[in-house]
Amino acid sequence: xxxxxxxxxxxxxxxxxxxxxxxxxxxxxxxxxxxxxxxxxxxxxxxxxxxxxxxxxxxxxxxxxxxxxxxxxxxxxxxxxxxxxxxxxxxxxxxxxxxxxxxxxxxxxxxxxxxxxxxxxxxxxxxxxxxxxxxxxxxxxxxxxxxxxxxxxxxxxxxxxxxxxxxxxxxxxxxxxxxxxxxxxxxxxxxxxxxxxxxxxxxxxxxxxxxxxxxxxxxxxxxxxxxxxxxxxxxxxxxxxxxxxxxxxxxxxxxxxxxxxxxxxxxxxxxxxxxxxxxxxxxxxxxxxxxxxxxx
Amino acid sequence: xxxxxxxxxxxxxxxxxxxxxxxxxxxxxxxxxxxxxxxxxxxxxxxxxxxxxxxxxxxxxxxxxxxxxxxxxxxxxxxxxxxxxxxxxxxxxxxxxxxxxxxxxxxxxxxxxxxxxxxxxxxxxxxxxxxxxxxxxxxxxxxxxxxxxxxxxxxxxxxxxxxxxxxxxxxxxxxxxxxxxxxxxxxxxxxxxxxxxxxxxxxxxxxxxxxxxxxxxxxxxxxxxxxxxxxxxxxxxxxxxxxxxxxxxxxxxxxxxxxxxxxxxxxxxxxxxxxxxxxxxxxxxxxxxxxxxxxx
Lengths: 296, 296
What we know:
2 copies of one chain form a homodimer. The first copy, chain A, is of the alpha/beta class. Chain A folds into 2 domains: 49-134, no CATH class; 144-295, Cytidine Deaminase, domain 2. Chain A contains 8 helices and 14 strands. The first copy, chain A, has helices spanning 66-76, 107-119, 125-134, 146-158, 162-166, 189-203, 220-228, 242-251, and strands at residues 24-31, 36-42, 45-51, 54-61, 86-92, 97-102, 144-145, 170-176, 179-186, 211-214, 233-236, 254-260, 263-268, 273-274. In chain A, the strands form 4 sheets. A 6-stranded mixed β-sheet of chain A has the order 9-8-10-11-12-13, sandwiched between helices. The radius of gyration of chain A is 20 Å and the shape is globular. Chains A and B meet through strand 1, strand 2, strand 3, strand 4 and helix 2 of A and strand 1, strand 2, strand 3, strand 4 and helix 2 of B. Strand 1 of chain A pairs antiparallel with strand 13 of chain B, so a sheet runs across the interface.
Protein backbone atom coordinates (compact mmCIF):
# COMPACT_ATOMS: atom_id res chain seq x y z
CA UNK A 1 0.00 0.00 0.00
CA UNK A 2 1.33 3.42 -0.94
CA UNK A 3 1.32 5.98 1.85
CA UNK A 4 0.00 9.46 1.17
CA UNK A 5 1.84 12.43 2.59
CA UNK A 6 -0.27 13.67 5.50
CA UNK A 7 2.16 15.88 7.41
CA UNK A 8 1.62 15.03 11.07
CA UNK A 9 -0.43 11.97 10.11
CA UNK A 10 1.92 10.08 7.81
CA UNK A 11 0.25 6.74 8.38
CA UNK A 12 -3.06 7.23 6.60
CA UNK A 13 -3.53 5.43 3.31
CA UNK A 14 -6.46 7.74 2.58
CA UNK A 15 -7.09 10.83 4.71
CA UNK A 16 -9.73 13.55 4.29
CA UNK A 17 -8.83 16.33 1.85
CA UNK A 18 -10.52 19.39 3.38
CA UNK A 19 -8.75 21.69 0.93
CA UNK A 20 -10.26 20.05 -2.19
CA UNK A 21 -12.14 22.77 -4.07
CA UNK A 22 -14.92 20.47 -5.21
CA UNK A 23 -16.01 19.40 -1.71
CA UNK A 24 -16.94 22.71 -0.06
CA UNK A 25 -18.38 26.06 -1.09
CA UNK A 26 -18.56 29.46 0.61
CA UNK A 27 -22.20 30.23 1.47
CA UNK A 28 -23.43 33.58 2.83
CA UNK A 29 -25.61 33.62 5.89
CA UNK A 30 -26.81 36.30 8.31
CA UNK A 31 -26.12 35.65 12.00
CA UNK A 32 -28.18 36.50 15.12
CA UNK A 33 -26.80 40.07 15.13
CA UNK A 34 -27.69 40.64 11.47
CA UNK A 35 -24.08 40.34 10.37
CA UNK A 36 -23.49 38.84 6.92
CA UNK A 37 -21.00 36.00 7.23
CA UNK A 38 -19.42 33.69 4.65
CA UNK A 39 -19.32 30.09 5.84
CA UNK A 40 -17.55 27.10 4.35
CA UNK A 41 -20.25 24.49 3.68
CA UNK A 42 -20.03 20.93 2.36
CA UNK A 43 -21.30 20.13 -1.11
CA UNK A 44 -23.91 17.45 -1.74
CA UNK A 45 -24.47 15.89 -5.16
CA UNK A 46 -26.66 13.16 -6.60
CA UNK A 47 -24.87 10.07 -7.86
CA UNK A 48 -26.88 7.42 -9.70
CA UNK A 49 -25.47 3.92 -9.32
CA UNK A 50 -25.99 1.30 -12.03
CA UNK A 51 -25.23 -2.43 -11.89
CA UNK A 52 -24.61 -3.33 -15.55
CA UNK A 53 -27.75 -2.06 -17.35
CA UNK A 54 -29.81 -1.82 -14.17
CA UNK A 55 -30.35 1.53 -12.41
CA UNK A 56 -30.15 0.80 -8.69
CA UNK A 57 -30.29 3.99 -6.61
CA UNK A 58 -29.51 7.69 -6.53
CA UNK A 59 -27.34 8.49 -3.50
CA UNK A 60 -26.63 11.98 -2.16
CA UNK A 61 -22.87 12.29 -1.63
CA UNK A 62 -20.08 14.85 -1.31
CA UNK A 63 -18.79 13.32 -4.54
CA UNK A 64 -15.28 12.08 -3.74
CA UNK A 65 -14.48 8.41 -4.51
CA UNK A 66 -17.64 7.66 -6.56
CA UNK A 67 -16.18 4.32 -7.71
CA UNK A 68 -15.57 3.13 -4.14
CA UNK A 69 -19.03 4.34 -3.12
CA UNK A 70 -20.76 2.42 -5.92
CA UNK A 71 -18.76 -0.74 -5.38
CA UNK A 72 -19.19 -0.64 -1.58
CA UNK A 73 -22.91 0.14 -1.82
CA UNK A 74 -23.58 -2.81 -4.13
CA UNK A 75 -21.47 -5.11 -1.99
CA UNK A 76 -23.04 -3.98 1.30
CA UNK A 77 -26.56 -4.37 -0.11
CA UNK A 78 -25.79 -7.96 -1.09
CA UNK A 79 -26.11 -7.13 -4.79
CA UNK A 80 -22.53 -8.17 -5.45
CA UNK A 81 -21.64 -11.46 -3.82
CA UNK A 82 -18.38 -13.32 -3.28
CA UNK A 83 -16.93 -14.63 -6.50
CA UNK A 84 -18.64 -12.11 -8.76
CA UNK A 85 -15.96 -10.56 -10.98
CA UNK A 86 -16.06 -6.80 -11.43
CA UNK A 87 -14.86 -6.06 -14.97
CA UNK A 88 -14.86 -2.31 -14.68
CA UNK A 89 -16.33 0.78 -13.03
CA UNK A 90 -17.19 3.79 -15.21
CA UNK A 91 -17.77 7.14 -13.56
CA UNK A 92 -19.22 10.01 -15.60
CA UNK A 93 -18.86 13.32 -13.74
CA UNK A 94 -21.19 15.26 -16.08
CA UNK A 95 -23.99 12.68 -16.04
CA UNK A 96 -23.45 12.05 -12.30
CA UNK A 97 -23.57 8.31 -12.87
CA UNK A 98 -21.35 5.38 -12.03
CA UNK A 99 -21.75 1.99 -13.69
CA UNK A 100 -20.33 -1.16 -12.11
CA UNK A 101 -19.85 -3.86 -14.75
CA UNK A 102 -19.62 -7.53 -13.89
CA UNK A 103 -18.78 -10.59 -15.92
CA UNK A 104 -22.26 -11.59 -17.08
CA UNK A 105 -25.47 -11.01 -15.15
CA UNK A 106 -25.20 -11.01 -11.34
CA UNK A 107 -27.32 -13.18 -9.08
CA UNK A 108 -28.91 -9.95 -7.84
CA UNK A 109 -30.23 -9.04 -11.27
CA UNK A 110 -31.63 -12.57 -11.55
CA UNK A 111 -33.30 -12.22 -8.18
CA UNK A 112 -34.59 -8.75 -9.00
CA UNK A 113 -36.27 -10.04 -12.16
CA UNK A 114 -37.99 -12.79 -10.20
CA UNK A 115 -39.10 -10.36 -7.51
CA UNK A 116 -40.25 -7.85 -10.10
CA UNK A 117 -42.46 -10.47 -11.71
CA UNK A 118 -44.15 -11.31 -8.43
CA UNK A 119 -44.64 -7.97 -6.73
CA UNK A 120 -43.61 -5.32 -9.22
CA UNK A 121 -40.64 -3.85 -7.43
CA UNK A 122 -37.78 -4.74 -5.15
CA UNK A 123 -37.45 -1.60 -3.05
CA UNK A 124 -38.55 -3.44 0.06
CA UNK A 125 -36.27 -6.42 -0.36
CA UNK A 126 -33.02 -4.62 0.31
CA UNK A 127 -33.33 -4.79 4.05
CA UNK A 128 -34.52 -8.39 4.07
CA UNK A 129 -31.52 -9.37 1.97
CA UNK A 130 -29.10 -7.78 4.41
CA UNK A 131 -30.45 -9.80 7.34
CA UNK A 132 -30.31 -12.95 5.19
CA UNK A 133 -26.52 -13.07 4.89
CA UNK A 134 -26.09 -12.49 8.61
CA UNK A 135 -26.69 -16.04 9.84
CA UNK A 136 -23.52 -17.23 8.09
CA UNK A 137 -21.34 -14.55 9.67
CA UNK A 138 -18.63 -15.81 12.04
CA UNK A 139 -16.49 -12.88 13.07
CA UNK A 140 -12.86 -13.61 14.04
CA UNK A 141 -11.77 -13.24 17.69
CA UNK A 142 -9.91 -9.94 17.74
CA UNK A 143 -8.42 -8.59 20.96
CA UNK A 144 -9.12 -4.85 21.21
CA UNK A 145 -6.76 -2.91 23.49
CA UNK A 146 -8.29 0.06 25.28
CA UNK A 147 -4.97 1.88 24.76
CA UNK A 148 -5.53 1.53 21.00
CA UNK A 149 -9.11 2.81 21.32
CA UNK A 150 -7.93 5.93 23.13
CA UNK A 151 -5.06 6.48 20.68
CA UNK A 152 -7.39 6.13 17.69
CA UNK A 153 -10.00 8.55 19.03
CA UNK A 154 -7.29 11.10 19.84
CA UNK A 155 -5.66 10.86 16.39
CA UNK A 156 -8.94 10.86 14.44
CA UNK A 157 -10.35 13.89 16.27
CA UNK A 158 -7.24 15.90 15.41
CA UNK A 159 -6.91 14.86 11.79
CA UNK A 160 -7.65 17.79 9.45
CA UNK A 161 -11.05 16.93 7.98
CA UNK A 162 -14.09 18.34 6.20
CA UNK A 163 -15.79 18.10 9.57
CA UNK A 164 -13.30 20.47 11.20
CA UNK A 165 -13.45 22.71 8.12
CA UNK A 166 -17.19 22.84 7.48
CA UNK A 167 -19.15 20.57 9.86
CA UNK A 168 -22.42 18.82 8.96
CA UNK A 169 -20.68 15.64 7.85
CA UNK A 170 -20.08 12.10 9.08
CA UNK A 171 -16.77 10.35 9.32
CA UNK A 172 -15.86 6.65 9.30
CA UNK A 173 -12.34 5.32 9.73
CA UNK A 174 -10.94 1.86 9.06
CA UNK A 175 -8.32 1.13 11.73
CA UNK A 176 -5.70 -1.50 12.51
CA UNK A 177 -4.39 -1.59 16.07
CA UNK A 178 -3.63 2.01 17.03
CA UNK A 179 -3.36 3.12 13.39
CA UNK A 180 -6.16 4.79 11.41
CA UNK A 181 -5.79 3.63 7.79
CA UNK A 182 -8.63 5.02 5.68
CA UNK A 183 -10.71 8.01 6.81
CA UNK A 184 -13.80 8.65 4.67
CA UNK A 185 -16.36 11.42 5.18
CA UNK A 186 -19.79 11.94 3.61
CA UNK A 187 -23.14 13.67 4.11
CA UNK A 188 -24.76 10.28 4.68
CA UNK A 189 -23.06 8.13 7.30
CA UNK A 190 -23.75 5.01 5.22
CA UNK A 191 -21.92 6.47 2.24
CA UNK A 192 -18.77 6.84 4.33
CA UNK A 193 -18.94 3.14 5.30
CA UNK A 194 -19.74 2.09 1.73
CA UNK A 195 -16.68 3.98 0.44
CA UNK A 196 -14.53 2.06 2.91
CA UNK A 197 -16.12 -1.24 1.81
CA UNK A 198 -15.43 -0.32 -1.83
CA UNK A 199 -11.81 0.47 -1.05
CA UNK A 200 -11.36 -2.82 0.86
CA UNK A 201 -12.85 -4.78 -2.03
CA UNK A 202 -10.71 -2.97 -4.65
CA UNK A 203 -7.50 -3.34 -2.69
CA UNK A 204 -8.36 -6.83 -1.39
CA UNK A 205 -7.71 -5.76 2.18
CA UNK A 206 -8.42 -8.34 4.89
CA UNK A 207 -11.04 -7.40 7.50
CA UNK A 208 -10.00 -9.84 10.21
CA UNK A 209 -7.64 -7.55 12.16
CA UNK A 210 -9.55 -4.31 11.59
CA UNK A 211 -11.75 -2.03 13.69
CA UNK A 212 -14.26 0.42 12.25
CA UNK A 213 -14.62 3.81 13.96
CA UNK A 214 -17.64 5.98 13.12
CA UNK A 215 -18.98 9.32 14.29
CA UNK A 216 -22.56 8.10 13.70
CA UNK A 217 -25.00 6.15 15.82
CA UNK A 218 -24.81 2.39 16.17
CA UNK A 219 -28.12 1.38 14.62
CA UNK A 220 -29.01 -2.11 13.40
CA UNK A 221 -28.06 -1.15 9.85
CA UNK A 222 -24.59 0.04 10.87
CA UNK A 223 -23.97 -3.12 12.92
CA UNK A 224 -25.19 -5.38 10.08
CA UNK A 225 -22.98 -3.61 7.54
CA UNK A 226 -19.88 -3.94 9.72
CA UNK A 227 -20.57 -7.63 10.38
CA UNK A 228 -21.20 -8.38 6.70
CA UNK A 229 -17.93 -6.64 5.87
CA UNK A 230 -16.28 -9.16 8.23
CA UNK A 231 -14.89 -6.47 10.56
CA UNK A 232 -14.86 -7.79 14.16
CA UNK A 233 -15.01 -4.46 16.08
CA UNK A 234 -17.04 -1.26 15.78
CA UNK A 235 -16.58 1.89 17.89
CA UNK A 236 -18.47 5.18 17.90
CA UNK A 237 -18.63 8.53 19.68
CA UNK A 238 -22.41 8.29 19.47
CA UNK A 239 -25.18 6.27 21.07
CA UNK A 240 -26.80 3.00 20.01
CA UNK A 241 -30.16 1.33 19.59
CA UNK A 242 -31.37 -1.79 21.41
CA UNK A 243 -31.51 -3.83 18.20
CA UNK A 244 -28.04 -2.69 17.18
CA UNK A 245 -26.70 -4.09 20.47
CA UNK A 246 -28.71 -7.32 20.09
CA UNK A 247 -27.38 -8.04 16.60
CA UNK A 248 -23.79 -7.26 17.67
CA UNK A 249 -24.09 -9.85 20.47
CA UNK A 250 -25.54 -12.46 18.09
CA UNK A 251 -22.74 -12.17 15.53
CA UNK A 252 -19.92 -11.69 18.07
CA UNK A 253 -19.08 -8.12 17.09
CA UNK A 254 -17.21 -6.08 19.72
CA UNK A 255 -19.31 -2.94 20.08
CA UNK A 256 -18.13 0.26 21.78
CA UNK A 257 -20.43 3.27 22.07
CA UNK A 258 -20.39 6.79 23.57
CA UNK A 259 -16.65 6.97 23.27
CA UNK A 260 -15.45 10.48 24.11
CA UNK A 261 -12.46 11.53 26.13
CA UNK A 262 -11.84 8.91 28.81
CA UNK A 263 -15.38 7.56 28.69
CA UNK A 264 -16.77 4.67 26.67
CA UNK A 265 -19.33 1.91 27.02
CA UNK A 266 -18.74 -1.64 25.83
CA UNK A 267 -22.04 -3.21 24.72
CA UNK A 268 -20.82 -6.47 23.27
CA UNK A 269 -17.56 -8.46 23.28
CA UNK A 270 -16.39 -7.33 26.73
CA UNK A 271 -14.30 -10.54 27.00
CA UNK A 272 -12.25 -9.54 23.93
CA UNK A 273 -11.38 -6.14 25.41
CA UNK A 274 -7.86 -5.84 26.86
CA UNK A 275 -8.02 -3.08 29.48
CA UNK A 276 -4.37 -1.98 29.28
CA UNK A 277 -4.95 1.78 29.74
CA UNK A 278 -5.86 3.71 32.87
CA UNK A 279 -8.92 5.78 31.91
CA UNK A 280 -8.06 8.38 34.55
CA UNK A 281 -4.76 9.08 32.81
CA UNK A 282 -6.57 9.87 29.55
CA UNK A 283 -7.04 13.53 28.67
CA UNK A 284 -10.57 14.75 28.15
CA UNK A 285 -11.33 16.18 24.74
CA UNK A 286 -10.44 19.81 24.34
CA UNK A 287 -13.11 22.18 23.12
CA UNK A 288 -11.67 22.69 19.68
CA UNK A 289 -11.70 19.02 18.76
CA UNK A 290 -14.92 18.02 20.48
CA UNK A 291 -17.62 17.20 17.95
CA UNK A 292 -20.66 19.40 18.25
CA UNK A 293 -23.98 17.87 17.41
CA UNK A 294 -24.07 20.37 14.55
CA UNK A 295 -21.89 17.94 12.72
CA UNK A 296 -24.12 14.96 12.94
CA UNK B 1 -57.88 19.66 18.07
CA UNK B 2 -57.80 17.89 21.41
CA UNK B 3 -54.99 18.89 23.72
CA UNK B 4 -53.06 16.19 25.53
CA UNK B 5 -52.16 16.70 29.18
CA UNK B 6 -48.44 17.46 29.23
CA UNK B 7 -47.95 19.01 32.68
CA UNK B 8 -45.68 22.01 32.13
CA UNK B 9 -46.24 21.79 28.39
CA UNK B 10 -50.02 21.91 28.06
CA UNK B 11 -49.98 23.21 24.53
CA UNK B 12 -48.68 20.17 22.64
CA UNK B 13 -51.16 18.26 20.51
CA UNK B 14 -48.69 15.37 20.42
CA UNK B 15 -45.65 15.32 22.70
CA UNK B 16 -43.01 12.60 23.13
CA UNK B 17 -43.92 9.79 25.51
CA UNK B 18 -40.56 8.84 27.03
CA UNK B 19 -42.27 6.60 29.59
CA UNK B 20 -43.88 4.31 27.00
CA UNK B 21 -42.65 0.77 27.72
CA UNK B 22 -42.46 -0.21 24.04
CA UNK B 23 -40.07 2.56 23.00
CA UNK B 24 -37.03 1.92 25.20
CA UNK B 25 -35.29 -1.07 26.77
CA UNK B 26 -32.68 -1.42 29.54
CA UNK B 27 -29.42 -2.67 28.00
CA UNK B 28 -26.35 -3.67 30.03
CA UNK B 29 -22.99 -2.24 29.12
CA UNK B 30 -19.56 -2.12 30.76
CA UNK B 31 -18.01 1.33 31.16
CA UNK B 32 -14.36 2.49 30.96
CA UNK B 33 -13.77 1.42 34.59
CA UNK B 34 -15.20 -2.07 34.02
CA UNK B 35 -18.41 -1.25 35.87
CA UNK B 36 -21.56 -2.98 34.61
CA UNK B 37 -24.23 -0.35 33.97
CA UNK B 38 -27.84 -0.62 32.81
CA UNK B 39 -28.69 2.03 30.23
CA UNK B 40 -32.05 3.00 28.80
CA UNK B 41 -31.78 2.58 25.03
CA UNK B 42 -34.25 3.31 22.22
CA UNK B 43 -35.89 0.44 20.37
CA UNK B 44 -35.69 0.10 16.61
CA UNK B 45 -38.07 -2.08 14.63
CA UNK B 46 -38.66 -2.85 10.96
CA UNK B 47 -41.96 -1.63 9.52
CA UNK B 48 -42.89 -2.67 5.99
CA UNK B 49 -45.07 -0.14 4.20
CA UNK B 50 -47.54 -1.24 1.50
CA UNK B 51 -49.54 0.93 -0.88
CA UNK B 52 -52.59 -1.23 -1.66
CA UNK B 53 -51.11 -4.55 -2.86
CA UNK B 54 -47.69 -3.06 -3.54
CA UNK B 55 -44.78 -3.49 -1.08
CA UNK B 56 -42.93 -0.17 -1.03
CA UNK B 57 -40.21 -0.11 1.61
CA UNK B 58 -39.08 -1.44 4.98
CA UNK B 59 -38.31 1.44 7.32
CA UNK B 60 -36.47 1.18 10.65
CA UNK B 61 -38.49 3.03 13.28
CA UNK B 62 -39.06 3.27 17.03
CA UNK B 63 -42.55 2.02 16.23
CA UNK B 64 -44.90 4.72 17.53
CA UNK B 65 -47.47 6.16 15.09
CA UNK B 66 -46.95 3.59 12.29
CA UNK B 67 -50.06 4.87 10.46
CA UNK B 68 -48.77 8.46 10.36
CA UNK B 69 -45.33 7.21 9.29
CA UNK B 70 -46.73 5.19 6.38
CA UNK B 71 -49.06 7.94 5.22
CA UNK B 72 -46.41 10.65 5.52
CA UNK B 73 -43.75 8.52 3.82
CA UNK B 74 -45.99 7.82 0.80
CA UNK B 75 -47.02 11.46 0.61
CA UNK B 76 -43.48 12.82 0.93
CA UNK B 77 -42.20 10.42 -1.74
CA UNK B 78 -44.83 11.65 -4.16
CA UNK B 79 -46.56 8.25 -4.18
CA UNK B 80 -49.80 9.73 -2.86
CA UNK B 81 -50.76 12.90 -4.67
CA UNK B 82 -53.35 15.58 -4.02
CA UNK B 83 -56.86 14.30 -4.54
CA UNK B 84 -56.06 10.65 -3.93
CA UNK B 85 -58.54 9.35 -1.35
CA UNK B 86 -57.16 7.21 1.45
CA UNK B 87 -59.83 4.63 2.34
CA UNK B 88 -58.05 3.11 5.27
CA UNK B 89 -54.75 2.31 6.95
CA UNK B 90 -54.24 -1.14 8.48
CA UNK B 91 -51.40 -1.66 10.92
CA UNK B 92 -50.47 -5.20 12.00
CA UNK B 93 -48.14 -5.16 15.00
CA UNK B 94 -47.22 -8.87 14.77
CA UNK B 95 -46.45 -8.82 11.05
CA UNK B 96 -44.79 -5.39 11.38
CA UNK B 97 -46.65 -4.14 8.33
CA UNK B 98 -48.85 -1.19 7.53
CA UNK B 99 -51.05 -1.05 4.45
CA UNK B 100 -52.36 2.25 3.09
CA UNK B 101 -55.48 1.65 0.97
CA UNK B 102 -56.65 4.13 -1.62
CA UNK B 103 -59.78 4.32 -3.74
CA UNK B 104 -58.64 2.41 -6.81
CA UNK B 105 -55.05 2.26 -8.08
CA UNK B 106 -52.90 5.34 -7.46
CA UNK B 107 -51.02 7.21 -10.17
CA UNK B 108 -47.82 6.02 -8.48
CA UNK B 109 -48.68 2.35 -9.01
CA UNK B 110 -49.45 3.16 -12.65
CA UNK B 111 -46.09 4.89 -13.00
CA UNK B 112 -44.27 2.09 -11.18
CA UNK B 113 -45.68 -0.51 -13.59
CA UNK B 114 -44.49 1.53 -16.55
CA UNK B 115 -41.05 2.03 -15.01
CA UNK B 116 -40.83 -1.63 -14.08
CA UNK B 117 -41.48 -2.65 -17.65
CA UNK B 118 -38.70 -0.46 -18.99
CA UNK B 119 -35.89 -0.87 -16.50
CA UNK B 120 -36.98 -3.56 -14.08
CA UNK B 121 -37.25 -1.58 -10.86
CA UNK B 122 -38.08 1.86 -9.55
CA UNK B 123 -35.64 2.22 -6.67
CA UNK B 124 -33.78 4.99 -8.42
CA UNK B 125 -36.82 7.03 -9.37
CA UNK B 126 -37.78 8.12 -5.87
CA UNK B 127 -35.31 10.98 -5.71
CA UNK B 128 -36.04 12.18 -9.25
CA UNK B 129 -39.73 12.26 -8.42
CA UNK B 130 -39.15 14.44 -5.37
CA UNK B 131 -37.31 17.08 -7.38
CA UNK B 132 -40.05 16.96 -10.05
CA UNK B 133 -42.79 18.37 -7.83
CA UNK B 134 -40.55 21.17 -6.63
CA UNK B 135 -40.89 23.53 -9.60
CA UNK B 136 -44.58 24.07 -8.80
CA UNK B 137 -43.92 24.97 -5.16
CA UNK B 138 -44.77 28.55 -4.17
CA UNK B 139 -44.32 28.90 -0.44
CA UNK B 140 -46.43 31.52 1.37
CA UNK B 141 -44.75 34.64 2.80
CA UNK B 142 -44.55 33.93 6.51
CA UNK B 143 -42.97 36.43 8.88
CA UNK B 144 -40.78 34.58 11.39
CA UNK B 145 -40.10 36.44 14.65
CA UNK B 146 -36.73 35.80 16.25
CA UNK B 147 -38.48 35.96 19.66
CA UNK B 148 -40.58 32.95 18.55
CA UNK B 149 -37.47 31.10 17.37
CA UNK B 150 -35.81 31.55 20.76
CA UNK B 151 -38.98 30.60 22.63
CA UNK B 152 -39.43 27.45 20.54
CA UNK B 153 -35.84 26.27 20.97
CA UNK B 154 -36.06 26.86 24.73
CA UNK B 155 -39.38 24.98 25.09
CA UNK B 156 -38.41 22.07 22.83
CA UNK B 157 -35.05 21.50 24.54
CA UNK B 158 -36.78 21.21 27.91
CA UNK B 159 -39.69 19.01 26.84
CA UNK B 160 -39.39 15.51 28.34
CA UNK B 161 -38.41 13.33 25.40
CA UNK B 162 -36.90 10.02 24.39
CA UNK B 163 -33.80 12.02 23.58
CA UNK B 164 -33.42 13.24 27.16
CA UNK B 165 -34.28 9.72 28.42
CA UNK B 166 -32.15 7.58 26.13
CA UNK B 167 -30.34 9.65 23.47
CA UNK B 168 -29.47 8.39 19.98
CA UNK B 169 -32.65 9.74 18.42
CA UNK B 170 -33.79 12.60 16.20
CA UNK B 171 -36.59 15.02 16.94
CA UNK B 172 -38.77 17.11 14.62
CA UNK B 173 -41.40 19.56 15.82
CA UNK B 174 -44.22 21.23 13.91
CA UNK B 175 -44.62 24.75 15.32
CA UNK B 176 -47.00 27.70 14.99
CA UNK B 177 -45.72 31.07 16.19
CA UNK B 178 -44.10 30.46 19.59
CA UNK B 179 -46.05 27.23 20.14
CA UNK B 180 -44.71 23.73 19.46
CA UNK B 181 -47.68 21.61 18.31
CA UNK B 182 -46.50 18.12 17.37
CA UNK B 183 -43.15 16.73 18.55
CA UNK B 184 -42.14 13.46 16.85
CA UNK B 185 -38.97 11.48 17.49
CA UNK B 186 -37.44 8.57 15.58
CA UNK B 187 -34.18 6.73 14.92
CA UNK B 188 -34.19 8.08 11.36
CA UNK B 189 -34.59 11.83 11.06
CA UNK B 190 -36.73 11.37 7.96
CA UNK B 191 -39.17 9.16 9.83
CA UNK B 192 -39.84 11.94 12.34
CA UNK B 193 -40.69 14.35 9.49
CA UNK B 194 -42.81 11.73 7.73
CA UNK B 195 -44.84 11.14 10.92
CA UNK B 196 -45.56 14.87 11.06
CA UNK B 197 -46.58 14.86 7.38
CA UNK B 198 -48.90 11.91 8.05
CA UNK B 199 -50.49 13.68 11.01
CA UNK B 200 -51.00 16.88 8.98
CA UNK B 201 -52.63 14.92 6.16
CA UNK B 202 -54.88 12.95 8.55
CA UNK B 203 -55.97 16.01 10.49
CA UNK B 204 -56.07 18.27 7.43
CA UNK B 205 -53.84 20.82 9.11
CA UNK B 206 -52.77 23.82 7.01
CA UNK B 207 -49.05 24.30 6.47
CA UNK B 208 -49.09 27.98 5.56
CA UNK B 209 -48.47 29.41 9.06
CA UNK B 210 -46.18 26.66 10.31
CA UNK B 211 -42.47 26.31 11.00
CA UNK B 212 -40.64 22.99 11.17
CA UNK B 213 -37.92 22.58 13.80
CA UNK B 214 -35.51 19.66 13.51
CA UNK B 215 -32.48 18.41 15.42
CA UNK B 216 -30.99 17.02 12.20
CA UNK B 217 -28.89 18.53 9.47
CA UNK B 218 -30.41 20.64 6.71
CA UNK B 219 -29.59 18.52 3.67
CA UNK B 220 -31.25 18.82 0.25
CA UNK B 221 -33.63 16.01 1.13
CA UNK B 222 -34.82 17.71 4.32
CA UNK B 223 -35.31 21.04 2.52
CA UNK B 224 -37.20 19.38 -0.36
CA UNK B 225 -39.49 17.52 2.05
CA UNK B 226 -40.34 20.67 3.98
CA UNK B 227 -41.05 22.62 0.78
CA UNK B 228 -43.22 19.85 -0.67
CA UNK B 229 -45.18 19.78 2.59
CA UNK B 230 -45.88 23.49 1.96
CA UNK B 231 -44.20 24.62 5.20
CA UNK B 232 -42.56 28.04 4.68
CA UNK B 233 -39.87 27.92 7.41
CA UNK B 234 -37.34 25.33 8.61
CA UNK B 235 -35.02 25.70 11.60
CA UNK B 236 -32.37 23.38 12.99
CA UNK B 237 -29.74 23.13 15.71
CA UNK B 238 -27.46 21.47 13.18
CA UNK B 239 -25.50 22.48 10.11
CA UNK B 240 -26.45 22.51 6.44
CA UNK B 241 -25.19 21.54 3.01
CA UNK B 242 -24.60 23.89 0.08
CA UNK B 243 -27.33 22.29 -2.00
CA UNK B 244 -29.82 22.42 0.88
CA UNK B 245 -29.26 26.20 1.06
CA UNK B 246 -29.52 26.56 -2.73
CA UNK B 247 -32.86 24.76 -2.94
CA UNK B 248 -34.26 26.75 0.02
CA UNK B 249 -33.43 30.01 -1.79
CA UNK B 250 -35.02 28.75 -5.02
CA UNK B 251 -38.35 27.82 -3.41
CA UNK B 252 -38.44 30.76 -0.97
CA UNK B 253 -38.10 28.70 2.19
CA UNK B 254 -36.86 30.58 5.27
CA UNK B 255 -33.90 28.49 6.46
CA UNK B 256 -32.28 28.83 9.89
CA UNK B 257 -29.31 26.66 10.85
CA UNK B 258 -26.90 26.20 13.78
CA UNK B 259 -29.51 27.48 16.20
CA UNK B 260 -28.28 26.99 19.76
CA UNK B 261 -28.59 29.35 22.69
CA UNK B 262 -28.46 32.90 21.37
CA UNK B 263 -26.74 31.94 18.14
CA UNK B 264 -28.30 31.14 14.78
CA UNK B 265 -27.55 31.60 11.09
CA UNK B 266 -30.20 32.60 8.56
CA UNK B 267 -29.35 31.07 5.18
CA UNK B 268 -32.43 31.97 3.20
CA UNK B 269 -35.44 34.28 3.67
CA UNK B 270 -33.60 36.94 5.72
CA UNK B 271 -36.19 39.53 4.53
CA UNK B 272 -39.01 37.55 6.18
CA UNK B 273 -37.23 37.49 9.54
CA UNK B 274 -38.54 39.95 12.14
CA UNK B 275 -35.64 40.63 14.52
CA UNK B 276 -37.71 41.52 17.59
CA UNK B 277 -35.48 39.88 20.22
CA UNK B 278 -32.12 41.03 21.57
CA UNK B 279 -29.81 38.01 21.17
CA UNK B 280 -27.63 39.23 24.04
CA UNK B 281 -30.59 38.92 26.41
CA UNK B 282 -31.05 35.26 25.48
CA UNK B 283 -29.73 32.66 27.90
CA UNK B 284 -27.19 30.20 26.58
CA UNK B 285 -28.19 26.55 26.78
CA UNK B 286 -27.48 24.91 30.11
CA UNK B 287 -25.43 21.74 30.12
CA UNK B 288 -28.30 19.43 30.96
CA UNK B 289 -30.40 20.43 27.99
CA UNK B 290 -27.64 20.85 25.47
CA UNK B 291 -27.78 18.13 22.83
CA UNK B 292 -24.65 16.06 22.71
CA UNK B 293 -23.59 14.74 19.36
CA UNK B 294 -24.25 11.29 20.84
CA UNK B 295 -27.87 11.93 20.02
CA UNK B 296 -27.50 12.59 16.37
